[in-house]
Amino acid sequence: MANQLGQIQHIVQLMLENRSLDHMLGYLYSGSGNISPAGAPFDGLTGQETNPDDTGQPVTVYPILATGPHPYEQPGADPAEGFQNTNAQLFSTATPAAGATATNQGFVVSFKGAIASDLANGYQDSLPDAAPTDIMGAYTPQLLPILSGLAAGYAVCDVWFASAPTETIPNRAFAAAATSQGHLGDAVKGFTCPSIFGRLSDQGLDWAIYGYTTAPLTRTDFPDIKSADPSHFGLFTNFQTRAAAGTLPAYTFLEPKFAAAGNSQHPNYDVALGETLIHEVYTALMNGPGWASTLLLITYDEAGGTYDHVPPPANATPPGDGTVGDFGFDFTRFGVRIPAVLVSPLIAPGTVYRGSGPIDHTSVLKTIQERWGTAPLTARDAAAASLGDVLTLAAPRTDDPLAGVTPPVSNAPPRPLTKPTRLELIHAEKVGALPIMDAHGTYQEARPVLTTSDEVETFINGRMAAWDAQLLREKAAKQG
């Protein structure tokens, strides 16, 4: 059937945290020889994939079992991430030679180092029984019925790679701006380039960014949205309200709760909470009047050190924006494969989508360009593969692949998860840097000491409310 992208009025993207395709969906079609019910081949796990430990002995991939002591908190520690750690996982060295071929044989050794580092630094991430072999554990459809049900009921993409072989903030920048301006680490204050949100505004189109219970992290990253009208931003409840009313914008970007007790699915926090979030997003859209013209994208920013057997391609188009990459990196290599599920009543069940080549986060930007005529942001999104061809049904489906399916509930014993995560503290620092006028008429930054996730959320939400009030005052003054 012909591409039906023209029927889409709303693209909604939920970007979760730090999981690979093999880790979350590798066993999706293992029972049928990695062939979907529609007859499409799927590059999943065969059960024969291995990685050597630090003695050279092979560790075989295995399914995570529901009978384990904490199946939804696997792997048992936060794997190593970032550019050099990702290199070590892919090339077994932090500094691969130019033109080296990735073998994906460094995950077990890297994870052993991550566990040792976590324990040595007194962090709270590692479970007492965390072992290097945990990194070869992968979830089954039985443990992840929501993500797997949507992947099988609509479409899964098995060629979606992180935009850069590194950590969260640079990849989220690529998702919004098709560049990280050379940055490969999370400790970046912000970006000076335009974003897709500004491009949509240029076309007179609405857009929105929603955090879960905290004002969204993405808001402070780009100059064309930092001072945008507050109506573009909100919390998950605001998203649910607009979905129910049928008033969602052209593009909606959803963030999870980044706390350790949140629903981002960042290792090694409770994956079941993320299953509930995915279900909440899906049901809000499916029950709303705009469902027939909606495309939902469930993605992850990067793999975060979790195992995947497919070497990332080395044919990525650099952004070409004049910035120089950290470590001399040229941005021609993609990052590790991430889970990507495409959901719409215009998608046939059992679809395995590969499009016209490797797909990365900028494929969303390309799809928006094709649908609404926005200008490319960099050479990367100009060259990106589109997602439009996944929409092949002329008439929307009326069935629900998740009918009767409920999100799983973790049986893990409670553990202290009140300490702010690194991403929460980065978020707080960005918000604290906003120039907000105090009672004396002086613009002030804020650098409070925040010791719990609740304190971080209260600080961010309070300061963003003050920022919004300041923006509205300034807007009224200009109009008045």
Question: Can you give me a brief rundown of this structure?
Answer:
The protein is α/β, with parallel strands linked by helices and 480 residues long. Helix content is 29%, strand content 10%.
Please name the fourth-level CATH homologous superfamily of the largest domain.
Alkaline Phosphatase, subunit A
The Cα radius of gyration reads: 21 Å
CATH class label of the largest domain: Alpha Beta
Give the name of the CATH architecture of the largest domain.
3-Layer(aba) Sandwich
Helix-strand category = alpha/beta
Largest sheet: 8 strands, mixed
Number of strands: 14
Helicity range = 25-40%
H/E element order: EHEEEHHEHEHHEHEHEHEEEHHHEEH
The CATH topology annotation of the largest domain reads as: Alkaline Phosphatase, subunit A
